[in-house]
Known about the structure:
Blueprint (H helix, E strand, L loop, with lengths): L6 H10 L6 H27 L4 E5 L5 E3 H15 L4 E6 L6 E2 L9 E9 L10 E9 L21 E7 L3 E6 L4 E7 L4 E6 L10 E3 L10 H11 L11 E2 L5 H11 L2 E4 L12 E2 H14 L3 E3 L16 E2 L1 E4 L1 H12 L2
Parallel strand pairs: 3-5, 11-12, 11-13
Antiparallel strand pairs: 1-2, 3-4, 5-6, 6-7, 7-8, 8-9, 9-10, 13-17, 14-16, 15-17
Helix pairs in contact: 2-3
The structure holds 2,5-anhydro-1,6-di-O-phosphono-D-glucitol and manganese (II) ion (2 copies).
Amino acid sequence: MQNGMSLKQYLINQQRSGMDIAADLVDLICETAVTCKEITARIDRASLEGALGVAGSENVQGEEQKKLDIITNDVMYEHLSTTGLLAGMGSEEVDDPMMIPNQYPRGRYLIYFDPLDGSSNIDVNISVGTIFSIVEAPHGTDTPSPDDFHQSGTEQIAAGFCVYGPSTTLVLTVGNGVAMFTLDRSVGEFILVRDNVQIPEDTQEFAINMSNQRFWEPPVQKYIADCLAGETGPLGKRYNMRWVASMVAEVFRILTRGGIFLYPMDERIRDKGGKLRLMYEANPISFIVEQAGGASSTGRERIMEVEARALHQRVPVILGSKNEVEKVVEYHKGE
Length: 335
Ligand code: AHG
Ligand code: MN
Ligand code: MN
């Protein structure tokens, strides 16, 4: 596919090449991309507008909200509710599923989003992002029930994330590989820069928050110890390490040069089920990683097949280069 096409042209090309992408799904993806443009601008101006720092509130997960967590959530909710394309929304920042206000028409999709991923990095000017996942509402455009929001990752029809870094880049899958678009600010469009993104199957680079080491489960303890043992250890390779603390940035790196990312279960978060959230972090990122030839697992189960029981459900996450993820899954089998 030629480079230089806009996001909408890319989606139309996908339709022409036989992909079953409904016109209202194209519209929804493009409208979601509009919110990412608006968020780019809000992040850009945040330090000038006094929008950095904490908001003084907590979200349903008991996490301190940054001002920009709330601003970006509002940008997404307010814009997407007017589109007539959605039956409801689920956000990291809002306890319950969000319905479409009565004055607007409804559509047949549900969207889940993490409006600002990596928000601990916002005040220190390190890359953050937005993650989204789109499914069909199981009962059409009527007001969805809370249960309608409990759909496993295999039900996703599109997923994407945007990284607000040195450039704003959108990564997207509609179930036919992964494409990357960079925001050309001079024309205000996301322009295709890479199609058919493939994650190298092997890697010598891992990403994990090492400060949690003593709390991890034994299989992850053993795997990381073996990585650290280097060439003469059981894995026979010398590893490099990265930890940005924005999953979007880690996954962008993995899509570009391979790697493995782990946010494993640890004993302090066992009762919560893990750290990262299934519906708007783990599922969309897993869909993208699998579509790019990588793998994504809890260590014991494919993430996209984890049964969804709650909007803010959490899971352990191990994803990236296929052969390396499979190795870590093997460590779990030996328990
Ligand atoms: P969020 O900012 O949406 O709460 O997500 C942050 C997530 C993820 O992006 C990142 O990988 C991880 O939390 C960082 O965790 P640590 O603070 O343990 O480094
Ligand atoms: Mn997040
Ligand atoms: Mn977030």
